[in-house]
Amino acid sequence: MGETRAKKEGQFASVPRGVKLLIFSQVMNNFAFGYLLIYVSAYLLEIKVGADVIGAIIGIQGIVLVLSGVPLGLLSDRRGRKWFLIAGNLLLAPVILIFAFTDSVTLWLIASAIGGLGEASALSSWNAIIADRTDLGNRDGAFSLSFIVSNLFLSIGTALPFFFPLLETAMGLSSLVIHREALVVLGSANFLAPLVIFALLRNYKEKIVTRDETSRRGNIRLLLRFSGINSLIGLGAGLIIPLIGTWLKLKFGVPDTFSGPFLAVSGITIAFSAVGSSRLSAKFGLLKSIVMTSGGSTLFMFSLAFIPSVFVAGGVYIVRAAMMNMSAPLMDSYLMGIIAPERRGLASSISAIIWRLPNSVSTIVGGFLLASGRYDLPWIAASLLYATAIGILYVNFRNIKPEG
Questions:
Q1: Which residue in 76, 164, 61 sits closest to 123, CA to CA?
Q2: From CA 377, how far away is CA 239, in angstroms rounded?
Q3: How far is Cα of residue 20 from the mean position of the Cα atoms in its chain?
Q4: Nearest alpha-carbon partner for 375 in 215, 273, 246
Q5: Is 207 exposed, middle or buried (0-12, 13-18, 19+ CB in 10 A)?
Q6: Residue 401: helix, strand or coil by DSSP?
Q7: In sequence order, which residues have a C-beta less than 8 Å from that of residue 321 and are 6 or more positions away?
């Protein structure tokens, strides 16, 4: 009945109003984080920061997430998830401001570590809160809407450098000043996000898990098997995906005024590709839809190792990213559906850290590969890891169905 009703109302119309407001509360954070990503991965390279250092800055965030994820996931289930979501949002602003006010690599690494702690805190609660406030009839739509909104505004944030040359001319300021001032404005604005979330969740009631409670379904072994397979994708993705701006600069010589808008177009395409996610799921089932979209994406990923033109490579990358990320909200929905509600905070954290540990390590490796001039190897290795993970995922989970 739930699925039929959702189809009649539209895939997003059936999403509860409170969930929609919570999703849109992240707009400013997503926008700011998108700009920070292009600042680190592309602009730092322009001011003579090495690709190996950039890889380390990006990688350390994931390593801290791994170390803190499980404890925070356990605490979020036992103490209340909304406070961890608020804390995670609160930490983004100081991270951005550290990059705005210092040239110290040591402080940049510390900021990245703080960002990892904030991400771990937010991830321990975000998916769980959405899953708790939805059912099988509207959960796919809710996760798809969350994915669309976050990627859309993250993408707009990456496009911000496109306007900087105009601002430099109009205001008579250097590129460095404009880049840094943007960080100051966005970092300061993000202090409002925790207040908005607090207002939205002030009446949110959740089940607090005691130490004696155990789950009758969605056990840890099942979660670890799912997350372990998905970690192969994380391992492959880390080799190149966080370093796209760096790759574009080193291989094709394009600055962040090009790579930023390019990643924005890619991200917007990714965001709206998720519109079809819940429809695919309704027609083919969650797991088959995940395999179809991610499998097709892997073929495009492999071809990127051999394309000599920046424009052709850009087009192929956009198609690859759109297909791969159609599966992202479905993966979240599937995992929350096979895990008991009282363990969803822990499940979110475990899934994230098992994905991010190899992802973070491989980002550091990817930075060294790019610095050494091996621009093809990250794509080839990533494609092989993706293909392996997708095959193993289908074999292991084809008979396991999500519940409410």
A1: 76
A2: 9
A3: 19
A4: 246
A5: exposed
A6: coil
A7: 266, 267, 269, 270, 297
Burial of 102 (0-12, 13-18, 19+ CB in 10 A): middle
Q: Write the DSSP symbol of residue 339.
A: S
**DSSP SS3 for 361:** helix
Q: Dig out the tokens for 341 from the structure.
A: 């509600």
Distance in angstroms (rounded) separating the CA atoms of residues 286 and 298: 19
The confidence score (pLDDT) of residue 404 equals 55
Enter the tokens of residue 134: 């939805």
Task: For residue range 222-271, list pLDDT tens digits in order.
Answer: 888 888 898 899 999 999 988 888 898 889 988 877 877 887 888 788 77
Report the alpha-carbon distance of residue 319 to residue 299 in Å, rounded.
10
| pTM confidence score | 0.70
Q: Helices 105-123 and 81-90, interaxial angle, to 10°? A: 160
pLDDT number for residue 212: 47
From residue 60, alpha-carbon distances to 5, 66, 103, 117 in Å are 45, 10, 17, 10
List, in order of start, the domains of the chain with CATH numbers: 11-202+218-397 (1.20.1250.20)
- Please give the full DSSP string across 299-323, using - where no structure is assigned: HHHHHTTS---HHHHHHHHHHHHHH
- Residue listed under structure tokens 């929350």: 336
